[in-house]
Every structure is written in C-alpha cells, then in structure tokens.
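Request: Give me one sample?
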Amino acid sequence: MPALVVSPDLVRARTPAPAVTPQPAPARAPVASPSRQAAAAAPTPAPSAPQATPVPTQPALAPAPASAAAVVSPVRPLDDSVSAAPAAQEQDASPLPAPGTQTAAAAPAAGEREATQVSALRIRGTRAVELVADGEAELQRGDITLTADRLLYREVSDEAIAEGNVRLAQGTDEITGPAARIVVGARTGEFESPRYAITRRSDPRAGEAPREVTGSGEAEGLYFEGENQYRLRNATWTSCRPEDPDWYVKARDLHLDYDSEVGTMRHGTVVFKDVPMLWVPWAEFPLVGRRQSGLLAPTVGTSNKTGLDITQPYYWNIAPNYDATLSPRFMSRRGLQLGGEFRYLGEDHAGELRTEWLANDRVSGESRSLGAWQHQHRITSRLYASLDVNAVSDDEYFEDLSSRVSVASKVNLLRQGRLDYYGADWWSASALVQRYQTLSGDEPYRKLPELRLSANRAGMAGGTTWALESHYTDFEHPEKTRYVNGSRLVLYPQVSLPVERSGYFIIPKLGLHYTKYRLDDPYIAGGRTSITRSVPIFSIDSGLIFEREASYFGNAYQQTLEPRVFYVKAPDRKQDDIPVFDTARYDFSFAQMFSESAYSGSDRVADADQITVALSSRLIDPRNGAERLRVAVGQRHYFSDQRVALPGEPLRIDRRTDFLAALSGRVTATTTLNSAWQYNPRDSQTERFNFGVGWQPEYAKAINLNYRWTRGVLRDIDVSAQWPLGGRWYGVGRVTRSIRENRVTEAIAGIEYDGGCWVFRAVAHRFATTTDRVTQSLFLQLELNGLASIGSNPVGLLKRSVSGYGKINEPGSGRIFGTD
C-alpha cells in the first residue's frame, strides 16, 4: 500500500508499495491490518509523477481559500491519477495509488504541531496544500480522531472539512453530526446539528471516590471557541443518559466552559419528565460540581411554626478565597426574612459571618434577628487568635424559626475571644474572655479574663517529667446580689517518674494543688474576701500487657489481656466556704475512674484514698492492626469516707463504686457493637445500661438499634435505618421513643427514589422541644445530578440522625460509609 509523507516546508515522494488491484466494491482494511502502512516507511527513489486531466464534477466540499496555491481537482471515482499541480510544484508531485486503504501522514517540522495522519479508501490531492480523503475517511492527531464519509484537510491552515457521518473524538469526549469544519490545532470551527457527550472528573469531597460527570445533548449548531470552550445554539444539556434523558436544560444560547467548569444558558428552561419546570432568562450552572456565582435552587418546606417556608439563595463567588450567600426567606406565618453568609480564607486567617433579620414577625409582632461570627487567625508561627460570637434577639428565636433539633434546643450561645501562644514543644500559654447569651435557665459565670500557662517537660534529672498547670480567672455574674464575684488563681506543679516497657508501665506522680480566691462581697461569701487552699496529691498508675495469638470463628487475632491499677491519695481540706464558679461533678465512667479528681473545674479538689482496678482485653487484626473488639471491666474502692462535696451533693458512704463493664468494636466487616453497663452491688441492681448495634452490609444499607436506660430517669429505644424498598426506591427513618413517658420524642420518615441522574426525597420530621411543645417539618427535594436541587434539603438531617446513611446518588465505591 502506498504512503505519502507531507511536511509544511518540504515534500518528498516515497516509493509506493505494490498497487492494489481495483475492485468493484473496495473494502477498507481494519486499522491493525498490515495493509495499512506507517508513514515512516523506508524511502526509495520516487518515479516521476504521471499527468492527469481534471474531470469537472459538482463540488461536494467548500473550495479552498484563495491563498492556497494548489487546488485539488474534484475527485473522480476509482481513478489512480492525481490532478496536475502548478508548474512551481510539479517536480515534487508523486502519484496517489489506486483505491484501497490509503494513508497520508503530515509530519511536523521542528517546533511545529505534532504529526497528522489521514487515511481513507481513496486519498487524492496536492502535497503540502490539501488532501481529499473519500470513503471511511479518518484524520488523527494525538488523542484527536475525526472520521467522516468524506474529508478535506488543508495542511497550511490546519483546517479539516468533513461531510457525512462526522464523528469527532478526543479522549472520552465525542461529537457527531452530518458536517463539520474544524481548525484542528486551534480547536476552532463549527459542527452542524451535533449530538455531543463531554466527560470530566469531579473533585472528590472528603470520604468520596472521584466521580465522572458526563454532560450530553444536541443542538442546531456547535461552535468551537478554543480548547475546552463550546458555544451551542438552540441546545440541550443533561447529565442523564443521552438516549432518553429524564431531565435536561434547553437554552437558546448555551456556553460550556470546561476550564472554569461553568455552564451559562440564556433563555433557558429546566425540563423534567418532558414537563417544563423552570424558565430563566440567564443562569449559570456547574458542569462538574465546581462552585460559581448564580441563583441556587430554592428550598421549599413547611412546618407548624413557620407555615409554608420558601428560601431563594443567591451564591456570589467573589474570589477563590471569598464567597457569600444571600438568602431571602418567605414564611407564610412569619413574614419575609433576609439572611446572608460571608466566608473568607487567607494564608493566615479564615472565618465566617452569618446574619438573619425578620423585620416584623406576624406572630409576635416584633423584629427578630441573629448574628454569628467565627474567626481564626495565625498571627505568627506560634501565636494564634480565635473569635466566636453568637447572638439572637430573643430566647425563642431558634425554637420558632429553626427546623433542626440541635439548633432549636440550644440553651447557651457562646461569645468568646481567645489568644494561644505555643512556646517550645513543652509549654504553652493562652488568654480568653468568655460569656454566654442564655436562652433558658441561669447564665453561667463570665470569664473576664482567663489566663493559662501549661508546661510538660520530659527527660529531666533522673528520668523525671515536670509539669505545671496554672490559670488565673476573673469571674463575673450579672446578678451580683445572688452570686458572688471574684478571682481565682490556681497553681498545680507536678513531678512524675514514668517507667514504661513493652510489657508493663508504672507512673508515680506527686503534685501540689494551690488555689487562692479574692472575693468582692464578703457578705455573700460568708464574711471572707480571701481564701487559700493547698492540697498535695499523690498517684500511681500501673499496668501489665499480655499478648497471645488466638483464633475465633475461624479468624486469627492478636489478643491482649491488660490489668491496670490506679491509686490516688489526697487529704481532706475544708472547702465549704469556697464559692462554685465553674465546677461540676464528673459523670461516672471508665475515663473518670482513672482521673485524680471527681470534679471538673478547680473549686473543689476531692479528698481521696482510693484504688481503681480494671481489666481489659482487645482483639486486634494482625493484618492491619485494626482493633476489632474491646472488653473492659472495672471498679473503684475507697479506704475512707468522702468529706469534700459541692453544695447540695450527698456525701458518699459506700467503700466501693458501682461496677462498670463495656464492650465495643466492629465485630465483623458489617456489624458494630457498643454497650455499657453500670451495676450497683450494694443494692444488687442495675443503675444504667446502654446497648447499640449497627449493621451496614453495603453502601446506603444500614440498620441501627439503640437502647438507653437509667434507673428512675430514662428509658428510651431508638431505631434508625436506610434500606432499598425495591426497584429504585429507598426508605429511611428514625424513631426515638421514651418508654418511661410513653411518647415519641423524635420521628423521621422518608422515601428516596434514585432516577439514575436525579433523586427525589420526601421526609417528614417531628421532634419535641419540650414536654408539651412539638415542632413538625416536611422536606420535599428534587435533586438533578450535576445541575441543582429544588426544594428543601433533608440530607443533613438524615446524616445526623441515621448512622451509616449514604446519599444514594453518590458513588459508594471507596467511600467511608455514612460520611459527607
């Protein structure tokens, strides 16, 4: 088979291979066939070019531009001659072969575009000017392939004109149509009546696998405007399967910018199931999920507090590190609320501002508002600052205007500023001012300010470790006639001698807890304005670690047995006259059993002469070191009666605590267990019992059961699940029932439908904010994959409420189950 090498600056003829005998119906050889020869075949002396007489026929393609010196003659069927070249180029002419699979490769000169290869059943033309490929024509350059029934390629202008069954492919992108004209290297030109499919990979979020998004559609015309730039006339776009899309965008003018990953439509309509749903004069939308300015899909919901609830957010992508969202919200019962959020990110700072304002609440008749500001700042490599300020106009703001349990049940809103300095690896200092806006109950003390200095230096003389915990706090309460105000200084130096080996550890420690108070009002403080307290504290923490190889249920494990003993000694110091600023008793747990003090804060230092004994065992997967199961039991024993207590706290008279047992772990690849038991040996009864089991065999399949019981206080059962119902339907829900009160405290019921390129969700939510007040909400959402969502979004609620919940229109492969 002949080969013709064409270069922009030099044309050299190469000896053709033996001619292929013409057949009535020439068949094109496969691409991999030996008959299709490479353009770099070894050159041999070229014969002189035969002369041919042009045969006039009707032109099938647009004529070459006037600047082209040589114009190829119209193609004659089954002819082995080439039209005569101008005299200036006649000496470089070489014959084109008889029909068959022929190849012409345009080899680049140094520093110019990469080689272009043209192949077809018949190729004719003038070298270094233009080639006409007829019959299964194909042009290939790099990863670009252009095929058509007939193709004209002008090498000087790098222009390809194609007719009949035209297909342009580059990587995973494909465009087809009846005709096209393209400048290959510049990626400019146009396609007539095309169908297209363009695929890009989205940036994965935390816990997700990368996801490919394919945008496809059709148009009256498609115009190439450079690499990754497409403009379409009277076009559609969808992320559904192109054969029969459930939804699509239809626009008079559509611009697809895959550099910024933004689509822009003018006079556009969103069509779902052949029903026009939304018309917009202008809109932008993400092509692969990247953010851009524009209207976001509205959220629509309803609740007994707000009535019909519609929010229409507008997102403003100010800069790569700044953005804002404006969110006007209409509530049929309350009125119009304006909301906004501004986020910023710098090299050494980040933060978020949020505000809401309801000028006139139709129910209360008052103006209602919210404001919040969170900021973090790295001032130097060692000095950091943070600010967290939250405020609302009234105590019922969240209960009336929020549909989230975690928000509606807020009691204290933090207002705090903080500075942290990290010195060497062994010390740090901080300063903060803190207060709260209290929506219910008594307000906590304000700290104006609190200064802290902490140090921990290992490897000192004799292998000792020296540590210091110190802080100074000014406490202030707005109700000065009921609460004493004052300051507190705490110094707690400590020294320990840790001995840690592979099979055991012993850590003796000695410290002195010194506290000094200065109180403002001696009458409220019991007649004293200055109180000092010093308590020496001694402790020994010790343990053994035994290991063995074990096998359970056919699986090999590394099993440990870890006994631990913790002893604490602290004398009784009179503390009844010391006010309580920020101190409470810890809840009894495994963590607290190995703590020196029974109290948080420093207003009480517990007297102690006690020993904690515990035994734990772990099953560890030797293949990856993952802990599969942990079992622990423990109890604390006292050698003396309790003498230090908070006001109103009963003194302990028992010489031993309740017995604690716990079991937790991922017992199989799909099942998790979590259980805790607190048993009172004196009364021979259970004080507290919690049990939870979760089963998640696959992504978006999860069942959870939790039971919580506290004697005389709590008895709840909690069931949550997400599960396929059949076909593409999924059910999701949660029920928390108080057996003790015989009522449902929270209920969620929802259905989801996965349409492949869209998802529909309907979720009802009911929760009790108090014993006699209930809030109900309804979420309806239509999410069009790769475009936007319409309606109120229940996904955040479902992820918080159903452990292991998976968003059904996100890929589960490689994901961490149940994460966002």
